[in-house]
Write a structure and sequence with these properties.
two-stranded antiparallel sheet; two-stranded antiparallel ribbon; mainly alpha; DUF1800
């Protein structure tokens, strides 16, 4: 019988990392094992106390035009030199690169979560000029802060005003788009009346963004509707022409409403526990949300300490966007830049799109579904398998502007080993579990190498055999589970 290879991480640590990172690498495993407990590592992730990966710090320099002022982005688009789609595509590429490279994996995971909750598509034409700043000033700034502060920043941001047509909302003509979505999607859910929507929208009047010209944004007190308002149990005289203080009180009320606490707790538990999380864990997270003043770190601590989380091993699937990032991380593919449209990081976007889901490209304001069973159609799984095999070797048409790990660095460090032992080593390294009999049989059949054959070193495997070995391991059911 072949000797089993040790796991990179104990089971509990592996589960935590599978849920809150984009892929367990040997370096990440070493980092986690360097702490006295899983909780201590998680706390360090919540506070981002570890030094950042040097290449991750350079990622913004790969996309220098994302730093353009909104007015310049508008001018370039009007002159057909650089439009909304290109801005959005670069933003998506930047985010994927950071998910692959960053030391702060929990932070990147939460940036993705909140970008999908307070959602604005990346290339939407009424918001694109401000969309990068929204990512930086709202999502990234507050991802591990409080939801109360994040909501305040999001609702009044020019990107949100443009996307949900709040630029058309003024006392002379109320536009209810943002006022409704603020209630239904961003806070309490569908428990409101039409009068609530009207008054919610009245409080939002005054903010401007010139989406048909230069995207200049500001606040015009002459456009603000003045008069008493009531939304659910919130009342305010709203007597001042400058309604920003009244709006701030309203947003704080919504952020700390019990219905908001429960909706956010439910969404967090669907993302990190299961598609149908037990009520007990949702209730626990909601209580922490209210008790802590909407502190996101506190909510996550409650979630990971709950037995429902501990019992949810491998009950979630990877979305296509998560899949391509995970594939890059566990196969040792390190993006090296984005100088052309053929660069590896852009090709990952295309591969995620072929599987049916690209972060920030959902067309509606409710964001991509957090339930992951819906991403497991036969066509998606087949395309995932193709991507895994395409990226599992040392050469390939997609491997442009990416550092590819050598075979020697990815395979066992001591030789000889039977081929079955090599398979088990790769299974532990890539998917975090021993190689089952079906996986061993599939790799033996596809490579033509008997399970008992002695392998004396990396050069005993051709690139095709190496690709089939690693790609087939990743194509096992565990490769799509997290």
């Amino acid at each position: 019988m072949a000797r089993r290879n040790p796991a990179l991480l104990p089971a509990a640590a592996r589960h935590l990392a599978d849920r809150f990172t984009y892929g367990v690498t040997p370096a990440l495993a070493t980092e986690i094992l360097g702490f006295t407990s899983n909780r201590e590592w998680f706390e360090a992730q919540l506070t981002r106390s570890q030094p950042q990966n040097l290449r991750a710090t350079l990622v913004p320099t790969w996309f220098p035009l994302l730093a353009n002022a909104p007015t310049l982005s508008a001018i370039l688009a009007q002159q057909a030199l650089r439009g909304a789609y290109q801005v959005g595509n670069e933003l998506i590429a930047r985010n994927l690169a950071l998910r692959i490279l960053s030391t702060h994996q929990v932070y990147e995971t939460m940036c993705d979560f909140w970008a999908n909750f307070l959602y604005i598509p990346a290339s939407e034409p009424r918001s694109f000029a401000w969309r990068v700043r929204y990512d930086d000033e709202v999502v990234r700034k507050h991802a591990l802060g409080t939801y109360r502060e994040m909501l305040r920043a999001a609702v009044v941001h020019p990107a949100m005003a443009g996307y949900l047509t709040n630029d058309l909302n003024q006392k002379a003509g109320i536009n209810e788009n943002l006022g409704r979505e603020l209630l239904e999607l961003h806070t309490v859910g569908a428990i409101y009346s039409e009068d609530d929507v009207l008054n919610s929208s009245r409080l939002l009047t005054g903010y401007t963004v010139a989406v048909t010209s230069n995207f200049a944004a500001g606040y015009d007190a002459n456009r603000h509707w003045v008069g008493p308002v009531k939304v659910l149990d919130f009342t305010h005289p709203n007597a001042e022409p400058d309604g920003r203080a009244a709006l701030g009180e309203y947003l704080d009320y919504l952020a700390m409403h019990p219905a908001t606490a429960r909706r956010i707790a439910q969404r967090l538990c669907v993302r990190f526990v299961s598609d149908q999380p037990p009520r007990a864990v949702v209730d626990a997270v909601a209580r922490t949300y209210l008790r802590s003043g909407s502190d996101i770190k506190a909510c996550l601590r409650t979630l990971v300490a709950h037995r429902a989380f501990r019992r949810s091993v491998r009950s979630k699937a990877r979305t296509p966007s998560d899949d391509v990032v995970h594939t890059a991380r566990v196969l040792g593919l390190t993006p090296a830049g984005a100088p052309t449209a053929n660069a590896f990081i852009y090709q990952l976007i295309g591969q995620a799109g072929a599987m049916g889901q690209i972060s920030l490209r959902w067309p509606a304001p409710d964001g991509w579904p957090e339930q992951t069973q819906g991403y497991l159609s036969a066509s998606r799984v087949l395309r995932s398998w193709r991507t895994h095999l395409d990226l599992a070797g040392t050469t390939g048409t997609a491997l442009i502007d990416v550092d590819v790990a050598t075979k020697a660095s990815q395979l066992p460090q001591t030789w000889p080993k039977t081929f079955e032992e090599v398979i088990d080593h790769q299974s532990q390294r890539i998917i975090g579990q021993p190689a089952g009999a079906a996986v061993v049989a599939a790799i033996v059949r596809s490579t033509g190498i008997p399970a008992a054959q002695a392998i004396t070193g990396p050069d005993d495997l051709t690139d095709l055999q190496y690709r089939l070995l690693r790609g087939t391991v990743l194509n096992s059911p565990a490769g799509l589970q997290r």
